[in-house]
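User: Reviewer 2 asked us to show a designed sequence for the structure in our supplementary figure. I'm pasting the structure tokens here. Could you produce the per-position amino acids so we can include them in the response letter?
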């Protein structure tokens, strides 16, 4: 059987899913999903893991926990506001000095400014701008500035949302009176979240074509809702919409992430990988 020129056959599990000698960057690395991703990436053997986040206290806690498990030399935590061109520039300069090359970039930033959960008619323009800048513009800035450090066969992964490809079922939130994430408004699904996550789909497809000649792949991982001690009313209504009958755990997305980060998905680019318990099936 003839082989495609320059392509080695992947015959073992290690050849498909190993991250040995690979450097990984997670923007939004202090988040709960990113923390779960980090353990999976380090377990897959990545050489260095760089976590960037604007929330210093949370970032230090996550990096400290990972260093204790996987070793100090494996994990770097750097404060960075992904929506700031100046901070992104300084961040990349630091990476050029410390690790020199990047093999995987994961963009998992999610902003929740004051009054993030306000209803549409009361939504402040400043909050709208803050979310768009962090969730979408930051993906542009991070990707653009990190490209010079990326090798051929590198992988870029944007973390999207089911609300970026389908409208939220607002009936789920109708009787919710509380919000575990704080603020004066109950848990809801802001329009700016859908808008920013939808934008990642377009950016992913554009970059997949633009970077194809460099053999840099760009894909979008779309997770469903994760159980995080939400309001019981919300939880009950949410799981009614899920064919598998439950919300996700944080680790339910690790396998999909490793697939996109490794050679296992080397012939996949510009695609959306949906892991939602079946939410978007109906």
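Assistant: Here is a per-position design you can include in the supplement:
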């Amino acid at each position: 059987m003839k082989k495609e020129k320059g392509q080695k056959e992947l015959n073992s599990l290690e050849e498909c899913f190993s991250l040995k000698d690979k450097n990984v960057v997670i923007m939004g690395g202090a988040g709960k999903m990113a923390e779960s991703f980090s353990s999976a990436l380090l377990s897959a053997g990545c050489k260095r893991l760089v976590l960037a986040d604007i929330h210093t206290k949370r970032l230090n806690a996550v990096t400290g926990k990972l260093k204790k498990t996987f070793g100090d030399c494996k994990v770097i935590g750097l404060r960075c506001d992904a929506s700031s061109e100046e901070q992104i520039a300084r961040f990349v300069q630091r990476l050029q000095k410390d690790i020199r090359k990047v093999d995987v970039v994961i963009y998992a930033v999610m902003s929740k400014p004051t009054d993030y959960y306000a209803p549409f008619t009361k939504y402040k323009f400043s909050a709208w701008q803050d979310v768009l800048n962090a969730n979408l513009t930051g993906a542009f800035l991070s990707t653009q500035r990190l490209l010079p450090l990326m090798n051929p066969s590198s992988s870029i992964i944007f973390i999207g949302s089911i609300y970026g490809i389908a409208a939220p079922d607002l009936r789920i939130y109708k009787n919710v009176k509380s919000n575990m994430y704080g603020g004066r408004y109950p848990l809801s699904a802001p329009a700016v979240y859908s808008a920013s996550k939808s934008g990642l789909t377009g950016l992913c497809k554009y970059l997949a074509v633009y970077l194809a000649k460099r053999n840099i792949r760009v894909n979008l991982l779309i997770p469903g809702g994760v159980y995080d001690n939400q309001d019981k009313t919300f939880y009950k209504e949410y799981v009614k919409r899920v064919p598998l009958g439950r919300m996700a755990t944080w680790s339910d997305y690790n396998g999909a992430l490793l697939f996109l980060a490794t050679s296992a998905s080397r012939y996949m680019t510009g695609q959306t990988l949906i892991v939602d318990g079946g939410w978007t099936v109906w």
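For the response letter, you might also mention the following. The chain has a mean pLDDT of 95. Strands lie at 23-27, 48-53, 75-79, 102-107, 150-159, 217-223, 272-275.
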